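Support case: magnesium ion complex. Customer-provided input:
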Amino acid sequence: MGRLFGTNGVRGVANKELTPELVTRLAASCGHVLGKNIALGRDGRVTSPLFRDAAASGLLSVGCNVHDLGVLPTPALQYAVKHLGLDGGLMVTASHNPPEFNGVKVMARDGVEIARRVEDEIEALHFAGGPKAADWDKVGDVCHREALTLYNDAVVSKVDAKLIGDKKFKVVLDPGNGVGTLVAPTIAQRLGCSVYTVNAELDGRFPGRQSEPRPDNLRDLKELVKATGADIGVAFDGDADRSIFLDERGEVLWGDRSFALVASSYMAKHPGARVATAVSSSNAIIEVVEAAGGSIHWTKVGSVDVSRAMVENGIDFGGEENGGVMYGPHHPTRDGSMTMALILEIMAERAKTLSELVAELPARAQSKDKVRCPNELKQRVLEALRSKVAAPRVDTMDGLKLVFPDESWILVRPSGTEPIFRLYAEADTQPEVDKLVSENKRLIEETVKELGLKP
Ligand code: MG
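Agent response - structure generated as follows:
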């Protein structure tokens, strides 16, 4: 019995790993566990109509009513589940994965991804053959609901639209041919911005760039920011729950920078607040939060873990180093357009350019890497590493995080889906962090070899 749910929902190559039969049974199991009225939405992928219909069949077969929200960003579906008073939601999307992938994200009635224990419950039911089908006269019905305007109104209402509008910002948006194109240009226009776009046609083949925004695939956005003299560039991932920002010079700010910027503004307005984030996040977040008398609530890596920690502990702000910011006053899930609106508000309030604002934040050098390791050896390798490395602070919340006296750190995290360890590291300078990664990578490779040779 394999695990269906990964770090964020169920994913696989369409019609190979993720089949219509699997999605139908998964949706039936979700419906059985979540309740009677379920939202269903999809992204713009080529195979999303296929899996939307498979999911609808599964839900209807167990007597759920399907509230079809059409094509929309994941955060718009999440917001709608809660505000339409539904019992849960299914989003057909593979987020930032390549076009041949698809998947399903599952939301509880609060509009946040279901907790890990509910994933386990749904998986157990799925692998036991799925729930019993309803009698013919008890199957569910389909209705179509509008969610995009509900969502756009909500985002615009959370910021000072007048203040932002007075600045007449020039904004360049790159939705990467994903569903962000259905909301972000409208929201930016309603905030009084002049909007330019690139890769703004919805196209499930992602012809413009890969669906995951990365510094090396944002060249068109960068050029357009410079050519138009824009104040800011914004790139979205495939389902628009994450956004990556470019400053007015066209420089890409990685997600930890934008997260730290929004966090610093949130802390200025809510001194002493608690902020939820994963153990992979930058020390810059700790500095920003603690400087305002606040504290960090650490979680495992994964937006589901951060969002659920916010809900369970009454925390109103959270985020991740990959560009996911969770703004509780709107909704405690990642939201690319809400983050864009918040950053525009910060630029308007502080009357500074984005590069000036970011220059005021603590700066750290980071690096990521991976090391191959058979799944069955992962636990023993982590235990061996712990005894081999002298680090004054060790955190085992998610894999092994070693924190050294100068506050540099490395996180060695077993992938839930692949036979690899993911490495995340941070230090004051790039040469230091590169050294930290290469030394530890070698040590892990040696340990894997030693343990792999033992019977
Ligand atoms: Mg995403």
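The radius of gyration is 22 Å.

Case will auto-close in a few days if no follow-up is received.
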